[in-house]
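Entry
Fold in token form

___
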Amino acid sequence: MRKARLILLSIGTLFYIVPQLTGCSDIEQFSIDAPEDLQQKIDSIAREKAKKNTGDTTYVTITTAVAGAEDYSTGWDKALSQWFKVPSNRLLHVDFINHGSEANNWNNWNLRLATAPGGDAEGYSELFVIRSDAYGWGNADFNMAMLRNNYGEVATAHGVGDMWEYFRSVMEGAVVSMEIDHSKTGNVYVTVTQTVPDGSILVETYEQPVSATADIYAALVCDASWFEVKNAYTVTSKVQSVDDQAAVSISVSGYPNTLEVGQTDFWGNATATVTFADGSFITADTADITFQVIPDLNTVGETTVLFSYSKTKLGNYGTPVAGYYKLNIVNPVKSLTVTRVPSFDTYYIFNQPIAPNLAGIEVTATYADDTQGVIDNGALRFDSVFATASGTAQVKVYYEGVNATVSTSFDVNVVKGVAEVGASNYTNGWWTTFSDNCNLAPGESKVFRMMVYSDNLENWHSPCVILRKSSDILQEYMVARMDNFGWGGSYDASVKDSDWNWDAFRGNICYSTVTLTVTNAGDGTADIKYDVVYANGEVHHQYYTGIPVDSADLQTAIVTEESYLVIYE
């Protein structure tokens, strides 16, 4: 059916474009059942247009006219459009038709920006990904506050109270014009204008710092969605200069909260984040921080550090913004005692050290004048829990004083695991660390009991199950994350059930114990069950049941991202 549609489009476009070749849209070279000279003419026009620069407009040859499967079976990141190069001082314009499955907000277009055309390309580094549902992630310059849209306003105008209900219902068939403006000012500006079937216009925008001189590359990414790319060209950037922005706030983190009398570095490794009027932010150079009052570092007790920043976004001097933090000045510490041990005391370990869970710990310092007081944990350094045989292990606690380092310790229980997945410093990227593969016969279940260690930065920094064919591991039935999300041909058909509190989920991943059960029901379906106990004792679950599979050909494995799993049974 698509071939017939493309034939009509190509013939119609040919008749329109022959008299006005310089203003044409890109034409894909299709195999057409028509007189031989017609195909030759179309091929000739396509070759000529690929070379053509019509003034400021440089057309891009579309090499991937359709990305993704039309039955919406393409999983996340399994199909992309071509990579489009966006040089400095150029604006890339791409027209395409979005086809979304309507199952989830994110099952529509997604945009990836990177420093090279594809993950295997030399120098590749992802700058950011933004989704059509106004969500995204990226490098250190990524800023969700700069991702804006009018979706709620349009939904309200249509009398729909749930913005995302409206969004899902209208994105299928949306005609999308996407602009990616790589300004020579060292910023990229994305504007996505989506004309949906009811005639409304949905707009999403984003901006972020990028290289002012090096090329950047853009691609559309499928996620149970597909696209028809119609047209692409570049023109000169619209943004030749940027408006200056005043600083509106400043915050600081990483500062020392305790100093001994005689210590003078009250800033330490602190970093100050300045937010500007447009919502963008920077990490301020310490040289640009002004201290209003030098704190009294020679008197025992609490003192206040006052600081300010007075530059605009472009580095001009403007109205200053101010902040402060409290600092505790103490006499030299001569000893430490753990007066209350952490509430969490059992760790499953394998071959990598684990950062301790310090919830509930209390450390008391004895000072040079023999007075005592609870010392802030931020003034202390804690050893990791190191991999040893099962039993009791000591965790050392240190205080770096002006004259000496003092220490103490507390005991924890350790249980030696049988396997591990990931890295305990959370540097493992997506699809890089896996468990052993396990084939499941009809009627068989595989149970993994594990402790999860995570940076708690994203919901998906947690365990993830792969179901695939044992005869061909490239043929996946589905991938099922612990956070009620997944993809693959069997994902939509599965029944999902969970009881998460999403406000608390991300912050409680680390130190959870998880019983993961994967079952081959033997009737053409499989089940995946996560039974989770947080470190605080809360019990939750995530289930996927009735997953369509070939019961005679089923394999499972675990993958994880920026998290570390110790399987103990």
